[in-house]
Write a structure and sequence with these properties.
This protein is rod-shaped. The protein folds into two domains: 59 residues; 99 residues, Ribosomal protein S6/Translation elongation factor EF1B (Alpha-Beta Plaits, 2-Layer Sandwich), CATH 3.30.70.60. Helices cover 48% and strands 23% of the residues. 11% of the residues are buried. Strands 1, 2, 3, 4 and 5 form a five-stranded mixed β-sheet that branches. It contains three helices and five strands, in the order αβαββαββ.
Length: 166
């Protein structure tokens, strides 16, 4: 009888320990499953983020291409009466400008309507250029109409990214 009660108590004790371990393992399994889902979601979000960054890189100038001489060459302003100038003073090494930054620019001078349209089309298709305002036949000090050419002022932004950081 003692053997029977001892055996029965050991069986009950092993069942209790087994049930406790089962629920502990079940909680660990649920936790691991949730962690796996969270990791898979983060991987998918990072993939989407990387795709967005690649899309942004295609429409933004890389750092170093935002120099006045390069932009004038790109827009074909040399040999014309149009002048390009930066209106803002951006510091690319500033921690706030670590990944992306923008310059404010102005193109002003005298041009015909068709030259202006050609320049605007070139700016719209060039990476990084955003046109904010256009003024044709506007009053610019020191610029007057001559030979079917009129004063023009184009203002906007040039967006630049740092390839070393992005």
């Amino acid at each position: 009888m003692i053997r029977f009660s001892l055996g029965l108590s050991l069986a009950v004790l092993s069942i209790i320990i087994g049930v406790v371990q089962f629920f502990e393992n079940k909680d660990a399994l649920v936790s691991a499953h949730d962690s796996l889902r969270r990791t898979q979601r983060q991987v998918a979000e990072m993939g989407q983020f990387n795709q967005r960054v690649e899309q942004i890189k295609r429409v933004v100038l890389p750092q170093g291409e935002d120099q006045k001489s390069k932009i004038e060459r790109q827009l074909g302003l040399s040999g014309t009466a149009l002048e390009f100038k930066f209106l803002s003073n951006v510091k690319p090494n500033d921690p706030a400008n670590q990944f992306f930054y923008r310059h404010e620019y102005e193109v002003s001078g005298i041009a015909s309507f068709f030259e202006t349209i050609k320049l605007l089309n070139l700016m719209e298709t060039s990476p990084g250029f955003i046109i904010n305002s256009i003024c044709f036949r506007c009053n610019i000090p020191g610029k007057t109409e001559k030979d079917n050419k009129y004063p023009v002022r184009i203002r906007g932004y040039i967006y630049v990214f740092n390839p070393a950081q992005v």
